[in-house]
Amino acid sequence: MTRIVATGTFDILHPGHIYYLTESKKLGDELYVIIARDHNIKHKPKPVIPEEQRLFMVSSLGVVDNARLGDIEDMLKPIEDIKPDIITIGFNQYFDIEKLKAKLEERGIKAEVVKISGYKEDNGFSSSRSIMHQILKKRCHNKPSGEKNNITTG
Fold this sequence. Notes:
By secondary structure, the protein is an alpha/beta fold. The protein has a single domain (3-120), classed as Rossmann fold. It is built from five helices and five strands. A five-stranded parallel beta sheet has the order 3-2-1-4-5, sandwiched between helices. Helix 4 (97-106) links the parallel strand 4 (86-89) and strand 5. The model has no long low-confidence stretch (mean pLDDT 85).
């Protein structure tokens, strides 16, 4: 049985996430997803959706066999626990794959690292950040006269 690990923030689920997870699952039998903890996200703005809710959403996807939150102190701890055969990196994730491989080797983790690529979408809905920009543009700016600047109106 081939075990795959995919990781990410998964702030606002979008087609790019579905592509990443679906392509990851094609590489094996079981797909484990590690959701980044709010506390650990330092390379981009903090998520809008709280980590427990992001975990719930990812867990609900049919392609996902097991989802869990990452470890607050040690990002490799869940990977050690899962013992994957393959770790996938998303098409727009900015990991230094060689550094990741070196860290895995230092810890005795013998997983192959695979970059999932090939996803192309030009409408701006392949990243949580671009979706938020679209929401702001369409719901918070250029309002017709008299309409409130309220994102909850629809």
